Every structure is written in C-alpha cells, then in structure tokens.
Amino acid sequence: MLPIDQPKEEMANRLQKLQAGMGKLGWSGCLVTQNVGLYYYAGSMQTGYLFVPARGEPTYYVRRSLSRAMTEATVRVAELESFRGFGLQLERDFPEVFGSEVEAVPIGADLDVMPAQLYVRLNEAIPHARIVDGSSLLRQARAVKSPFEIGKIAQAAEAAAKALDAGISRLKEGMTELELITIIESELRRNGHIGLMRMRGYNQEIMTGVVAAGDAAAEPTYFDGPAGGRGLSPAAPQSVSRRPIGRDEPILIDIGCCIDGYVIDQTRTAVIGRLSPELTTAYETAEAILRHSESLLRPGTLPERLYADALDIAERAGLSERFMGFGRDQVKFLGHGIGLEIDEWPVLAKGFRDPLEAGMTLAVEPKFTFPGVGVVGIENTYLITENGCRPITLSPERLYVLRAD
Amino acid sequence: MLPIDQPKEEMANRLQKLQAGMGKLGWSGCLVTQNVGLYYYAGSMQTGYLFVPARGEPTYYVRRSLSRAMTEATVRVAELESFRGFGLQLERDFPEVFGSEVEAVPIGADLDVMPAQLYVRLNEAIPHARIVDGSSLLRQARAVKSPFEIGKIAQAAEAAAKALDAGISRLKEGMTELELITIIESELRRNGHIGLMRMRGYNQEIMTGVVAAGDAAAEPTYFDGPAGGRGLSPAAPQSVSRRPIGRDEPILIDIGCCIDGYVIDQTRTAVIGRLSPELTTAYETAEAILRHSESLLRPGTLPERLYADALDIAERAGLSERFMGFGRDQVKFLGHGIGLEIDEWPVLAKGFRDPLEAGMTLAVEPKFTFPGVGVVGIENTYLITENGCRPITLSPERLYVLRAD
C-alpha cells in the first residue's frame, strides 16, 4: 500500500483551523463524508466518516478498506461497527460531545455533496446530533494552500505544459478535436495524471478540459464554465466533438491535470493560419484582463472586484455580450479557486467579499465567445503571495499560431 | 448543436413505465435532478429539473443551457424562472397535481444522488410537495434496455476489445501499470470513449478501470468492486500505480468504455511467462463460475441465486476466502447491471429477488484475490434474451499468455 503522503504537522494545522471555525459557529463537531474532504483531513479516502469534535482528536470511522485506511490515515482510525449503530459508537467515543446534552447538538456536515438519502439516514442513526450545513466552512477552510499542496499543483502544471506542447506539435488541419485531445490526454496520463479530475458541483463533470475549435467551441452547454464545446453526444455535451479542425479558426485548448489529487487549469488559444481582426482584438482584450487581474491578485483584494473590473474592460472593448459565454449562456465569474477540486473557493464573482489571502490558488480565465465562429481566451493558475501573485502555470503565454500548409 | 439521438417512441415508453411505477406507489409525480436521469427521460442533460406528473406530459425546467436543451430534448422544455419560484411555476403548470390538494402531495425524487442541500432547498421551494425517496423506482425502471441502448453498449464493447488488443500487443516486462493503461485509454478515446464513466454510488469513482499486476492488484481499496489496485496516491487509491509489471504474475485488465453515455465492463487476465498452479486453478474456477452463471442468466432467475451459486463453487474449490476480494475486504456480489452507469440494478447479490428479465444487461465478474501475489479473474457483459443470454463483450475469452523474453 502507499505510505502517508501528507506532512503530519500540516494535517494538524488543518484540523485546528476547522475546529476554530466550528467554535465561531457554535457547532459541537463536524462530520466529513465526501472522499475529497476525508483525504484533506484524514489523509485517506477510504469509505467511511470522519468525526471532528470541536475540541480534541478526531476519529475516522471506516467501513472499507479498514486496513488501507490504517496505513494511509494521519488520524485515529476505527472500524465503523454498523451504520445503524453509528450514533451509539459516536456517543461512546465522544461522551463530552454527545453525552451530557438534553437536546441534540449541532454538527456541521458537507451537505452540498452528501446525498439526501444519506442525510436522512444519518439523522436517524445519530439522534443526538442536529446535522447542519457545514459546506461553507469546509470550502473556506481549504482555500489557503500549504507549500505541500502548492508543490502538487506545480507538478500538475508541469504535466499540463508538456501535454500542451505534445498537442501543439502534432496539431494539423483536418485533425478532429477528439484526435487532438487523445494526444494531449495520453501525455497527461504518462506524466502521472490520475485519470480523473474532481468537481464539487452537483452534476458537474469534467474530462480533462475543453478542446474545441471554431463554431463547436462556441456552443453553449450546462458546464459551469465560459466555454462548453459541442461534445460527442447529448450524453457527453461538452468538450471535444468529431469535428475536424479547420484553418483560420480559434482552437481553444483548456486543459487540466490531476497529480496526487491536486489539479491545475490552464487555457491557450491556437490557430492554424490566422485569426480575423475581430478575434485578435478579443484575444488581446483577454490578455489585457489577465494583466489587470494580476495587478489585483494580492492579499486584501475582494474576489468580486476582479470580476467587476474584468466586466468593465470587456464593456469598454464593446465585448460585454461575448464575455464568459454568449448572451444568456454567460457564466458570472472570471475565475475560481483550485486545489483538490476544480471548482474551489473563492470564486471571482459577485458576492465573494472575503479578501484574498497569501497561499490561495486561483485560475483566472477571461474568454470571449463568438457564436458560429469560436472562442478565444487565456487562463493561468496563480498563487497569491505576500506581495502579489505568481503564475503556477508553466506554458508560455501567447497565441499559438501555426502555419497553414 | 447535436441533434436528438434517442428514438422518440422509446422515450415515450420510458415515461409510461415510470408513470406506471408512480401509480403503484401512490405518488403524484417524480422530480428528476441527476444528469443521467435527465438524459434518460428528457434526452438532454442540461442543468435543470424534470417534473413527470403521474399522468400527462412532463416538463423539463432548464436553467442552462436553455437553447441546447431545446435542441436536444424529447420532452417539453421551459425556462426555470427562478429557484425560489420553482414551486409557483410548478403549481401554475400542473394545477391538477398541486392545485386542489390541501396537504402536500408525495413526489418521488432521486434522493440517492441529490445533495442534501438541494433536497432541503427544494422542500422549501415547493411547499406543496412532500419529496420522498424515488431512487429504487428510478433505478429499477432503467434495468431493462431497449435495442437502441443495447446497440450503444455493443459499440462500447467494440472499442474496449480494440483497446485490450492494443494494450496486449504492446505489453512487455518492466512496463509500468501506468504505461499500460495509457496505451489502453488512448485507444479507447480514439474510438469515441467520452472521457469519463459514470457511477451512481456516493464517492465512487472510476477511471477507465483497474489495470494492475501482482501484489499491487491485490491491495484492498474503498472501490466497490472485487479488485482495487494500489493506485497512484492515497488521493487516487485504486487502479494503476507506477509499479513495473513483472514476469510470471497475473495482470488484471479490467476496463470499461463509455460511448454516447453507455458503458461496457470487461476483464481479462494476462501473464508474461506463466501462472503458478494455484493461480491457474483459481483462474479456471473463475471461468467455471462464468459458465455456470451463463446457464442461469435467463428470464426468471433471481439475481441473488447467481451470487449464492458462485459462492458455492468458490467454496468447493477451497477459494471462498479469496472470492471477490480477500477476507474482510471482500465485496458481496458477483456482478451488476450496466448501462448509463457502471453500477446499475440489478446487482447479483443477496436481497435482489426481482427475477431477471429479457433486455437486462449485466456484467458478471468472478475474481480471486491472493494478497501479495495478485488477482485473477474474468468478466463479460451479457444481454438477457428471451431464452438465455448472449455476451456483448467481444474480446476472446482466454488467459492471455505472453512469452517472457
């Protein structure tokens, strides 16, 4: 089995931060049920539940595989005796939490991802708990990354840069979007991509990203991002299609990679031949938004400011209707936190008013959509530092222009 | 955008079947929120909710992308006006369901996948509904496949067979598991694999399967299957690792593929050199279980019978402790329904007593785990026919023995 991969001291810090948050909210404990949350707090994602009391040591109750959890976990592991008896087991192990109360005690849980059926059953199994929505705390607590985590994202950035190079070096007119992503994914995988990327949002899925050209790239979709792509079927309605890539049309290469659980997200635009003046202007506007965003990416900036300013720049360029999708299919953000999941907090969107902090990692992705024509844009993942920011993305930042034969 | 891909008449049959089920349970309607369910009943998986009344036509309330849903869907599409106003919109559109009642009416929903947060909010937004757990009905209703669906699974089988051949043709000693799966996945993708496979179970994930050799294959994991694999990290604790594949050890190649939403699942065992007599016997026992299972795979058989009989055969061979995982990490099933999700119903497990029916598609996967040594086994996906069954899997059924140089 694989050894513990996360620094023990860091794991203790994470738990302390969570407990401090619980204290402010008046919760008696937190129940983590989602695999990503388990990995973040227990160092393992075996099937089970992690109970973190407001004070003291947590216990990770594991159903399967117990032996694997015992090897991997950085916290105390116990066998989950039975689902129905989980409440009794908790009362026995945490008398200070559940023992002396007359009323049910408030316990936060990851209700944004936990299925309703499990929620109902947990409420029955733990009658002394009143399960409340702990999603916001759990998402906030993960926003600032440690050097260990940043190192993992940087590894993913390296693999993504290699994969982009592999794709660009073999890109040619007439190749389908599917053929292009096959080359890119193969390079990602060879470099350690775990084979999937995690999104927290319900029904949100991501392959390795969106690789799409011309009108296919500009098609709207449910995917919670600025560019969807035609996809292969109504059952896979995003990213690549079997459409051949033509000359003089924008090719959007928005790819991610997941190494040891941590993801990167980056976008580059390519063209075989040349872009029209209109698309060139839009691409340059995306670059201008990125430059302006970089000047704001520092501790203290409110995340919503970046979106508001980007909207202004797009509007001054006469491109507001095409910014981050077209018309009613626009998304209302400029970027997003990134780490164990693609869609972490903070979001660079209206309403996100907790100031940026050093250690946060954010993907910033200004894009412009021209229905029937294509999507242009650029995306880097950044680390917020003490004084500003630095890109984690390694790919050279430019429009990739290939000669049409 | 992509045109409608599912036969209209078939879509009507699906809704009729669901409505018949609702009638028996006394529900006034059903609310489908999960992407796979939306695709099954509405032909599109854009973000929104499908409301199916117990009688009459359903409406698909779409938030994004409305234009795409209108192109793809086979049912009536309406814009979801606002989440908070969803209850009012439903009352206006379905006065016969919500209008005349004094009490809240029972509405089934997919509570096994719907997040608890959404469940709580939907209960608030639709005060005239009493949302009940409709998971069982929704899962049962999909168990029997149409010729259209079977055709899609057969396409996935073809891609999987090609990918296995590609992997086997380039398999050699010293290659890592990661390198082997990279070859396989590349071939799957080239042939139209959508880039992900869907599982319904909470926290369950699947890359394209488990490709693992020797002791790494035999490591236990949370994955709800008989063989997990070491994985690349505690954050990806299943399937491939960076372990080199050696000679004389079993190489488990359990791969899936998803074409237009439909998945196949198959396993073959390979070896470079030769298997020990003990592993050879176990492999032959897996084949014997498969042969016996085929004799039972026909309309009328109770799914649990297949598991019970398989256990008997394993026990007679002295292999019960190693059957479907080792010791306490065993899973308690022999196979599972398969279609839009990998983990469909029925499961070949104790408690599944609704008889098999023609049109059901099932993956049957007897495997034996030898900790520290490896996993051997075989898996085919079958279609239940009027008189028996036929394999959909196309790969030749044999132990793949490669010469060690």
Quick recap:
Chains A, B: Residues 152-386 form the Peptidase M24 domain. Two copies of one chain form a homodimer. Chain A has twelve helices and 17 strands.
Give your account of this protein's structure.
The structure is a homodimer of 405-residue chains. Chain A is an alpha+beta fold and 405 residues long. Chain A has 2 domains: 8-140, Creatine Amidinohydrolase, Chain A, domain 1 (3-Layer(aba) Sandwich); 147-402, Creatine Amidinohydrolase. Chain A contains 12 helices and 17 strands. Chain A has helices at 8-25, 35-42, 66-72, 86-93, 95-98, 116-125, 135-140, 147-170, 177-190, 214-217, 277-296, 303-316; strands at residues 29-32, 47-53, 59-64, 76-79, 105-109, 129-133, 209-213, 251-259, 262-272, 335-337, 344-348, 361-364, 367-370, 374-377, 380-384, 389-391, 400-402. In chain A, the strands form 4 sheets. Chain A has a 6-stranded mixed beta sheet with strand order 4-3-2-1-5-6. In chain A, strands 11-10-12-15-16 form a 5-stranded antiparallel beta sheet. In chain A, strands 7-8-9-17 form a 4-stranded mixed beta sheet. In chain A, strand 5, helix 6 and strand 6 form a beta-alpha-beta unit. In chain A, helix 11 runs antiparallel to helix 12. At the A-B interface, helix 3, helix 6 and helix 9 of A face helix 3, helix 6 and helix 9 of B.
Name a few traits of the molecule.
alpha+beta; six-stranded mixed β-sheet; homodimer; five-stranded antiparallel β-sheet; 405 residues; Creatine Amidinohydrolase, Chain A, domain 1; Creatine Amidinohydrolase; 21% strand; 2 domains
